[in-house]
Amino acid sequence: MQQNTDPLSVLPPALRLMPIETAVSTSSEDEARIRRMSVDGENNNQHRRRRYDSNPRFSPRHGVVSKPALSRHLSLRRDVEHAAAETYLVTHLAFKLLRYLGVGYRWLSKLFALTFYAVLLMPGFIQVGYYYFFSSHIKRSVVYGDQPRNRLDLYLPKNNDGLKPVVAFVTGGAWIIGYKAWGSLLGMQLAERDIIVACIDYRNFPQGTISDMIKDASQGISFICNNIIDYGGDPSRIYLMGQSAGAHIAACVLLDQAKKESEEKEIISWSVSQIKTYFGISGGYNIQSLVEHFHKRGLYRSLFLSIMEGEHSLQKFSPEVMVQCRSMKPMIPYLPQFVLFHGTGDHSIPSNASETFAAVLGKVGSKVKLVLYEDKTHTDLFLQDPLRGGKDKLFQDILASIHVDDPIALAEDANAPPQRRLVPEFMLQLAHKISPF
Fold first, then answer.
1. At what angle do helices 210-227 and 245-263 cross, to 10 degrees?
2. How many helical (H) and strand (E) elements, i.e. helices and strands, does the chain have?
3. Of residues 1 and 219, which shows the higher confidence score?
4. How far is CA 418 from CA 155, 189, 241, 379, 411, in A?
5. pLDDT of 149-163, one tens digit each?
6. All structural domains of the chain with their residue ranges
7. Which of 22, 27, 78, 100 has a CA-to-CA distance to 196 between 20 and 30 Å?
8. What is the pLDDT of residues 263-299, one digit of tens each?
9. Whole-angstrom Cα distance, residue 222 to residue 224?
10. What is the CATH number of domain 103-434?
11. DSSP per-residue letters across 371-390
């Protein structure tokens, strides 16, 4: 081998970057230090092992902290740091949002109602929160994109035999307060029935507008379609679900993706054909017709139009309107089956939002099923009923749709024990009455 004749090759990289006069003028003391650094570098791994064994805090021999315990500690620390960063971000955005809202009577009254509502359901929230943070069957904050909110949570069944059906869930939150953890109760219950749930987080307003939300949700679905097999999911059995604002966003994503596929002009990272069924829970699909309703409910017109990128964009982001456009006709065959769930007692988004969307989908030739729940409110279906335990009708209907081609799973669902009650009945009844939704 040819000997290296570069006089600077004996120096460490940091000194090689110095001006030549500075490097050459290094004192004999510095040279000795450099030699010691070289020797230390050669024995670096051995030194770390000695330090690990000699430190009681980390040494298995001293029985203080084992490697698995240390791993769990570091994982929890990362989760806490991520939660702190998210809290800071949400707080910053909340103050920014207040500039849009002002301080009005409607918002103050809803804030007080929301506070009492949350207190009444707190026994259930604490139990679900404990499961969310400490269950080994949840993969929290899996990164799917490069934006701050591009994270998703994976709820994995305890039984890992065979590939499982997958639900990609887009949470609600009035396009303003959506968060992936809102799906933890649903994720916990479906995972108990051998179904993987992926709760997708996305940018809310004012961090992003509706286009950003659709883009984020689409990226999350793409990640699931292309990577869920690594977590035990079946790529051929993926179901897309959204609740409230999440149902609207998910429907927009489907139409946008179907349009791209029908035009064959863009390279796509996932296909609508990979989605077996769309589940919409308490969604609004004609934004044009809901502007004044939301304004009366406290989601003021000026704010809502900012979220939807102006009045001129309302048609573009109204799935019910878009599927009727002649230019969108070629995309209809690409759409999966739609199953729309809604409570007839819903005041936040009236049930006729799902009824008219179902009628339009049927008229244009898309497969659709409408399920209405008598006197159920916006939060009854998604919160109070699951927290009540027992046989939850919506939950049973979702399972029946997912397991429709699996008689063994259907039999297991029929014989499964009822869900455990998480909140006393009197508190649920009171929460139903004061709910601001």
1. 70
2. 18, 8
3. 219
4. 20, 11, 23, 20, 14
5. 999 999 999 988 899
6. 30-65, 66-102, 103-434
7. 78
8. 877 788 999 999 999 999 999 999 999 999 999 888 8
9. 5
10. 3.40.50.1820
11. EEETT--TTIIIIIHHHH-B
